[in-house]
Amino acid sequence: MDQLLNIATEILAELWEIFPYFIVGVAIEAWVRTKKWHLKIRKALTRYGLLAIGIATVLGIVSPLCACGILPLTISLILSGLPLAPAMSLLVASPLMSPAGYSLALKNVGPALANSEVAGALFLGVFAGVVVHIMERRGFDVLNLFRRELPKGDFHDPDYPDEVLRCFCNEMFSKRVERDGGGPVSIYLAKMWEGGVKVGKYLILGVAVQVLALHVIPDAWIDALLTSGNPLAVIGLTLAVVPLHITQITATAMLFGFMDKGVDSSTALALLIGGPVTALPAISVFITLFRPKVFLLYLSICISGTLLVSFLFPLAGF
Question: Which domain holds residue 123?
């Protein structure tokens, strides 16, 4: 009983230490959503050709969506005419960073790794777009991406026939406040509440996992995985975390308590990039809707991009 109380106390203490960064990040994210900057940029993506790869990457970093949340949006953009290259950039970059994610990363893993995470997200987004563009130039068929013809219509329509792609954002608390005539301040606070709940649950999960790990995993095991810098450990960690549903918030929270042990930067980046970039739910939807060649291209980009960031960025001084 005493040990459980100690664990709970440690979790609460770490959450309290992180709390100011949590509030700042959630507030900025709610402001971006209230001003609808991400929607305005998204509408312009189809007009910029190759430049859309960079724009989609930046949009992905600003947009507070995980791998599962960005996939239906990306599919809708493809159906509305967005080329596959910038669509893949958006799909890969979006789960890796957000305003709240960066604010919490500053506290949890420090400015150096937080900035490396941003740079890694930018690199991976551009990398994904360029790889797809090159594949397209060399004969990759971008006209037959889906296994079946998807129903026409708006994904936000409650009667949209495909339940996998149907969006339920109209049921969100902030949308109800807006429909009920709420003013800008009320809508902003509603969006901040939504973001706080979404980010908070992953933050609590990450801190809880980290505190429990410190109590139950032998120090020698932690050192071998997190501090040794062994290339095999980095590769193994990448392959292990890529399919797991580890958000950017959870990833930095998991590392928070280990930073004083001298976490190796390659290992940290493998978790920070490989964990959020995709997850089994997103992979399952991808397999269901897209042809195998598109899925294999997507998964190859996620894994190879994570390994490139993990090994090359520390050598480059990030």
Answer: 2-315
